[in-house]
Amino acid sequence: MSLFDLTGKVAIVTGSTRGIGEAIVHRMAEHGAKVVVSSRKADSCDKVAAEINAKHADSAIAVPCNISDKDDLQRLVDTTMKKWGRVDSLVCNAAVNPYFGPSKDLPDDAFDKIMGANIKSNHWLAHMVLPQMVERKDGSITIISSIGGLRGSPILGAYCVSKAADMQLARNLAVEFGPSNIRVNCIAPGLIKTYFAKALWDNPDILERSTSGAPLKRIGMPDEIAGAAVFLASPAGAFMTGQTMVIDGGATAA
Questions:
Q1: Is residue 132 part of a domain?
Q2: Does 230 reside within a domain?
Q3: Active site includes 159?
Q4: Range of the structural domain that residue 235 is part of
């Protein structure tokens, strides 16, 4: 258990009121971390934080945040620092995809929204937590990317571009801040049964096409991503940085 022990660590996880993010805050708290539950809706944040605290007393706080608002992101970090005095692990999970279709019809405002929320907000938030990590010579940042960043798509083009950029963002930060003992990695999930990906699994025909070619022949579950986030934040992941961990049931291998 000590390899994955997060006792005394503080983790901020964006988009953590459902899906992959919710699974991550629950598992991090289970492994001893203090967690900050964050998404746009205050009531959803309060609900998840209360569920965690019912199992692990005083382990979670709720801080609503719109990741596209720089001031909101700074408030998220400042509130965490005021409460617990540090941020050991940042998990950038929140993302958007307001457009589903061919790139030729992609509106400019949708493109800007995708790039802003999926890349720029991660850049902002990382640099808000990095100074105190550098001071302590310790910390980890994990960006939840996607296997979409590893291959092209006729219907999710801009989203895939943003997720490929997140992988490069992780590499850049890993190189820049590695000398300060700060590790930065990505997790690239395949198709996971979340509300965010509902358009890809709610239709049985689309689900069959999406999973039939993968070795495990099934959709993934949020909790099957959470363990990787715990690994990357824990002593077990201490020598891993600048990498993208693909968790997709073998879809990209096939």
A1: yes
A2: yes
A3: yes
A4: 2-245
Q: What is the pTM of this model?
A: 0.96
- Answer whether residue 252 is part of any domain: no
Amino acid letter, residue 127: H
Domain harbouring 118, CATH code:
3.40.50.720
Q: Is-contact 197 191, C-beta < 8 A? A: yes
Inside any domain, residue 253: no
**Tokens standing for 198?**
């509902």
Q: What is the mean pLDDT of each run of 10 residues along the chain (254 residues)?
A: 93 98 98 98 98 98 98 98 98 95 96 98 98 98 98 94 98 98 98 79 77 91 97 98 98 94
Q: How many domains does the chain have?
A: 1
Q: Which of 11, 22, 29, 159 is catalytic?
A: 159
Task: Name residue 92's amino acid.
Answer: C
CA distance 201 to 223: 17
Q: Tokens in use for 158? A: 């801009």
Cα-Cα-Cα-Cα dihedral sign, residues 113, 119, 124, 126: positive
| pLDDT score recorded for residue 196 | 74
How distant is the alpha carbon of residue 100 from its chain centre? 21
